C-alpha cells in the first residue's frame, strides 16, 4: 500500500518470520465442490483479515449478531502465506511461515471450529521481497504450476479458498522479471480451473490491480470478491465483471479506524448497495462495541462477544 500509516501494522513481524526459503511439498488431492457464496445473514458479508503471527484466527468466531445469533464475520482470512522465489529452480514457490503453518497443521482446532459456525476460511498470499509475484509469470505453464501449489494447499487443509495480495513482491529482485499484462490473468484462470467451486478474492492493490484483463479474459469473471485496500477510506475496486454484491469499497483497520469513520463507511456501503465490508487486524481485545456501530447499520443488530 502506498501510505505507511495505513499499511498492515504487523507486517514487519511477518516479513521477519517469513523470509526463509523453505518449501513445502503437499500431496495433490481432488477439488471439493463447496459453495463459495453461502449467505449467513442479510445485509451483506463481513470479511476479516487476521495477522496470525500475533493473533488467533479463532477471534473471528467470537462475535455474533445479538439479534438472530448469526456470525458477524462471514469470511476469515489467514494473513499471510508468501509467494517466494527459488533461485536454484528459478520458480515461484508457496511458503507458509511457522505461524501460518501452525494454523494449517492444527486446522482441527484453528479452522474447523470457524467452518462449523458457517464461516469460510481463506489463505491470503503475499509477496516476500524475493522478486516472485503474481504479475511476472512468463508462461501459462509457470502460472499453472504455482496455481497447483495453491490448490494443493487449499485441498489438503480443507480451506475455502485463496486471497491474492500483490504487495512486497519487489519485482526484479533475484533477476526476476517486471510485471507483465498476462501473468495475473493466467494465474487466476488456472486457479479457477483447478478449484471451480472455491473462493478466490483479490485485495485491490499493487501491479495486479491494473492488469485485470488479457486475451479476452477478465479477472472479474473468474474471482468471487474484491475489496478496497486503503483502510479508513471508501473506494470501489475497479474490477470489471464483479457485481456490487461482490465488492467492498469500505476498508477498516480495527486497531486505528475511528468509530465515526467506520460507521460512515458502513452507511455509504449500505446506501450505495454494496455487499461486502472489509475489516483488518482483529486482535484478542473485545471489540463488540466498536463492531456494533457498523453492525447496527448493516444488519440492524448490535454485536455480542463470547470469549
UniProtKB/TrEMBL annotation:
Alphabetically ordered keywords of this record: Glycosidase, Hydrolase
Name of the protein described by the UniProt record: Chitinase
Gene3D superfamilies named among the record's database cross-references: Glycosidases (3.20.20.80)
Top-level division of the source organism's lineage: Bacteria
Domain GH18, residue spans: 44-301
Entry-linked Pfam families: Glyco_hydro_18
Record keyword Hydrolase present: yes
GO biological process, one term: carbohydrate metabolic process
One annotated GO molecular function: hydrolase activity, hydrolyzing O-glycosyl compounds
